[in-house]
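Worked Example 4.2. Consider the chain below.
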Amino acid sequence: MGQSPRPHQIPVVVLAGFLGSGKTTLLNHLLHRSGGSRIGAVVNDFGAIEIDAMAVAGALGDSTVSLGNGCLCCAVDAGELDLYLDRLARPEAGIDVIVIEASGLAEPQELVRMVLASENPRVVYGGLVEVVDAAEFDGTRAKHPEIDRHLALADLVVVNKLDRAPDAERVLGQVRSLTDRAAVVPATYGRIDPEFLFDCRPSEERVGQLSFDDLHQEAYDGAHEGQEDEARGHAGHLHTGYDSLSFVSDVPLDPRRLMRFLDSRPEGLYRIKGYVDFGAHDSRNRYAVHAVGRFLRFYPEPWAPGAGRLTQLVLIGSGIDARLLGKELEACRSDAPHTADEHGMWGVLRYVQDPEDRDEPDPGPDTDAEPLASESLVLEPLDPEPLDPDSGDH
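Applying the procedure from the previous section yields the following structure tokens:
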């Protein structure tokens, strides 16, 4: 089991929220703060004039797959979405994360369903991010009561425009009461730490002492110099939005104990990533773990010859008790690391993708392929059939 290297999997993040909540602003922020990571963006405008796509494309030049004329959840099925994901996930593109920015009228549950239904072995669900306009939250909720359901589905909720809300703490509390253990992050101007969504990679291209990302950020910050300094104070700093914990163990973990920890992971714990050593329960493989919100998957892969056998995990969340989580992980260490019972791995194996469902291992980028210049990728859209404006399919 798991003797072949698994294909590199790209997280696909669904970015949702009602009209005017700040989704495009947040996506532009992520593009500027990519840290050298390459972002593929699928932007779904409602209507024939693709304003949001233009706004995102303007951030870093060519940056989007654009789907106009209707909500993605209505106009495209899972198979068609796979065509876009295939183009973004091809190895030579070098994409690290794909963000699907839904229209303000899209149904998040359907978008998540389509991503989970993808048959592309190079992508993995990266979570549902719901953006909320704090200043208009009460009005939006009265007009669109389905927002309660959307919040309950979300893995990460960004409460945006807090600087415009006269009762920000009340809104934050109300949003938290409507989520199902999701991480809730306060924000202004869509500024959240990209580490919530993907691993930022240091840029390899430098201009003097500044990277291209630094130059983009300098322009981005300069464009906001006239905005209220008070709102951009300490509360707007990225490090206030999340907490993280790094855990390392040279003693194998007990699979049953780890699964109890994962099944009861607390409210606000958004991401878990890393590798687990289960010792004698599977001496041939380490297990890569990917958890986002309530989504969980393990990937067995052979230990490299002569490699040190360690469990290495990173946990990221909002409002989490890192010290307590560390103690709980310590308690997952095995009391008998050199013995195993035949049923010990059953809980873990429920979250291992069937190897028969996966394609051949990723051979790696084509070394003869021409490198792409920008940090994000544009693809000319396929030609979706436009919706009949009189059909009512929105």
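The two ends are 45 Å apart (CA to CA). Confidence is low (pLDDT under 50) at residues 45-64, 66-75, 203-240, 356-394. Compare this with Example 4.1 before moving on.
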